[in-house]
Design goal:
Layout lengths: L2 H9 L17 H5 L3 H5 L5 H15 L3 E3 L15 E3 L7 E4 L5 H6 L11 H15 L4 E7 L1 H9 L1 H10 L1 H23 L6 E6 L4 H26 L4 E5 L11 H6 L5 E3 L6 H8 L4 E6 L1 H7 L2 H15 L4 E5 L9 H15 L4
Parallel strand pairs: 1-4, 4-5, 5-6, 6-7, 7-8, 8-9
Antiparallel strand pairs: 2-3
Helix pairs in contact: 4-6, 7-8, 7-9, 8-9, 9-10, 12-14, 14-15
The protein binds zinc ion.
């Protein structure tokens, strides 16, 4: 099987020849090429170099599925009047959110992801990546959930405060974020991200917004992304943060599956064995080694042991090995390689 076929089979809950690995390596490739962050991410965004980093990382680490471009949270910040900071060897961060004043939400105009930079160049990077490796390797588009994006646009603390004190304003931010997400999802799906759409939703977290607002905003927001993906014949993977294997939030998983997703990535702290047992009949389970402890700190033996435990918990069908979140530069490449190798060895019956 090709890596792409392997990934597609797992997402359809079939049994591929070995468990596929998807690293969701958002800025990790900058370490592989050893380039400063601003060189790719600042200003107009360098589509060519971004794609080169993604391809070089896949060649180096031998994973089955990639996000088609280097990416970071708040990509559209400067297009909408906010400010980003680009550390030389770090992850870009939002210095001033674009909707810092409530009236900014009303003033904002939706960018066109196919013509407005830097977004257009991120889309173009997916196209270049797909042309280079897309026949063999699964290329995905990574977009943010509506609540998560609203938190980035408004600033998370301000947004959470809006939810408590000015719901109308919060809802305007969510609506803007959802439209932005729909437009970007459509652009990516028709320009290289032709395997699946991944909805990254760190602040669509019931611990943060409560289960009621998760149902009220996160799930309808997800449904809108699924609809765009469906229009392009693509499956959707959902990755909200939170402990969904706890009884207080577990009913939100079937609620998410009902929106039409093909896969659910569980973040750190979830019980993967329980997730597979409860929901593996209806959705592909994604997740694995804790990114912020095990994968960052090692050592190798611990990474291999945790990889093996995840594989034993989830088995060979309908499971995509990931780590618990996304991968950014600064995570030791050798540690990631250890995880991928351990997954291969387990599938070959030698771990
Ligand atoms: Zn995450």
């Amino acid at each position: 099987m090709t890596p792409r076929q392997r990934f597609e089979a797992a997402l359809e809950r079939d049994t591929p020849d070995r468990v596929p690995v998807f690293l969701r390596d958002l800025t990790l490739g900058l370490d592989v090429l050893d380039v400063p962050t601003p060189r790719v991410c600042a200003g107009r965004f360098d589509a060519e170099l971004s794609s080169r980093a993604v391809v070089a990382t896949q060649r180096h680490l031998d994973h089955d599925a990639v996000v088609g471009s280097i990416q970071f949270c708040g990509l559209e910040t400067e297009m909408l009047g906010g400010r980003l900071r680009f550390p030389e060897r770090g992850i870009p961060t939002i210095e001033r959110p674009p909707f810092i004043a409530p009236e900014d939400v009303d003033r904002a105009e939706l960018p066109d992801p196919l013509t407005d930079e830097p977004m257009a160049n991120v889309v173009r990077a997916h196209e270049i990546t797909s042309r280079r490796i897309g026949k063999e390797v699964a290329v995905l588009g990574n977009i943010e959930g509506a609540v998560t994006k609203a938190g980035l646009l408004r600033g998370l603390e301000a947004f959470l405060m809006d939810l408590l004190t000015d719901r109308g304003l919060a809802e305007k931010s969510i609506e803007f974020a959802a439209r932005l997400g729909e437009d970007l999802a459509g652009a990516l799906a028709s320009h290289g991200a032709d395997c699946a759409l991944f909805v990254a939703a760190a602040s669509d977290n019931p611990d943060l917004i409560g289960p009621d607002d998760f149902r009220r905003y996160s799930l309808p927001g997800l449904r809108r992304m699924v609809r765009v993906a469906e229009q392009h014949g693509l499956p959707t993977i959902f990755h909200p943060h939170g402990i969904f294997t706890d009884t207080q939030f577990s009913s939100l998983v079937p609620g998410s599956i009902e929106q039409g997703i093909a896969g659910f990535q569980f973040a750190e702290g979830n019980d993967l064995a329980l997730a597979k047992r409860e929901w593996g009949g209806e959705t592909c389970v994604l997740g694995g080694v804790d990114a912020f402890t095990t994968l960052l700190l090692g050592p190798e033996e611990r990474i291999a042991a945790e990889t093996r435990r995840c594989l034993e918990d989830c088995g060979t069908s309908g499971y995509v090995m990931m780590c618990s979140c996304s991968l950014h530069r600064g995570i030791p490449l050798g540690n990631v390689r250890t995880m991928v190798d351990a997954c291969h060895r387990w599938s070959d019956g030698v771990l």
